[in-house]
Amino acid sequence: MISKETLEAFFRENFPNSDFTIESLGDKAATLRQPVSDNHLRPGGTVSGPVLMAMADAAIYTAILGSLGLVAMAVTTNLNINFMRKPQANRAVIAECRLLKLGRSLAVGEVFLYSEGDDEPVAHASGTYSIPPMEE
């Protein structure tokens, strides 16, 4: 398993526009925190769908890299999301991911997204990643 610090450095270098933080990283799991600013809001004063989808995608990617190491070319092949309630515009988005399958060529994960401090999820996502062959 890779360290949280190594993974944070990887994201800073390869995804300089990402502004989430890794709250926790475990065996086939990751929790991310996205501060919410006016740039993340849509009309009506709620966090936009693209922000929630990006957090779900990043959480799955983080859990995969945290488990396998820096497999940078792992790519999303499918992402489904259900928006369940309005996120709070004045609270960070928390994405909690657990991998359901971590195979040689595919990984499947699910993510619950929350407004920080709320127990009820604002969205639920599932996604599949293609993992490139490991170099020997």
TrEMBL record:
<keyword id="KW-0378">Hydrolase</keyword>
<protein>
    <submittedName>
        <fullName>Thioesterase</fullName>
    </submittedName>
</protein>
<dbReference type="InterPro" id="IPR003736">
    <property type="entry name" value="PAAI_dom"/>
</dbReference>
<dbReference type="InterPro" id="IPR006683">
    <property type="entry name" value="Thioestr_dom"/>
</dbReference>
<dbReference type="GO" id="GO:0061522">
    <property type="term" value="F:1,4-dihydroxy-2-naphthoyl-CoA thioesterase activity"/>
</dbReference>
<keyword id="KW-1133">Transmembrane helix</keyword>
<dbReference type="GO" id="GO:0005829">
    <property type="term" value="C:cytosol"/>
</dbReference>
<feature type="transmembrane region" description="Helical">
    <location>
        <begin position="58"/>
        <end position="81"/>
    </location>
</feature>
<feature type="domain" description="Thioesterase">
    <location>
        <begin position="44"/>
        <end position="120"/>
    </location>
</feature>
<dbReference type="InterPro" id="IPR029069">
    <property type="entry name" value="HotDog_dom_sf"/>
</dbReference>
<dbReference type="Pfam" id="PF03061">
    <property type="entry name" value="4HBT"/>
</dbReference>
<keyword id="KW-0812">Transmembrane</keyword>
<keyword id="KW-0472">Membrane</keyword>
